Amino acid sequence: MGHPIIAEPPEGVSGKGFFVTSFTKAVGLARKNSLWPLPFATSCCGIEFMATMGAHYDLARFGSERLSFSPRQSDLLMVMGTIAKKMGPVLREVYIQMAEPKWVIAVGACASSGGIFDTYSVLQGIDRIIPVDVYVPGCPPRPEQIIDGIIKIQELVGNESLRRRNSKEYNDLMALYQIE
Ligand code: SF4
To answer: ∠ CA(149), CA(63), CA(3), 5° rounding?
Structure first.
């Protein structure tokens, strides 16, 4: 029996006893398989996330079992649940406190668009206050869908250029959200 493949290697050139790839791809490989999520769970979608962390779905298979409730020690903000407008500034502060590079998943209809709560007190999507990288549909999404969102984020992270965070496009995006 051969050795199990733990993570697919990035594009590169291989020969007898060597493998060569770019620095960006090597960093991307490490980042995508060691994402540390900050679960910002405010209601029912958070329960689905608990199932996603459990033994059956086991998010540890993707290198993301280390949850962080400290923004500075996490790089993946997972927003799961209804975000009341009063909670908006708290969510934004948590996002700002996270160190770069960082990514965001809006899990479920409420985080993505306000969901069924089209009302004065509910934020109609977290992308009104912070940038979002991946949206997971559903009310609630099943754990498989949450894992699908993680895989989509992994694709983004693995292919992100090391220069992106210093690019004009990224600075413009931050300026749009009035984040320095
Ligand atoms: S999307 Fe549905 S399940 Fe998720 S927090 Fe909103 S109401 Fe609850």
So the answer is: 115
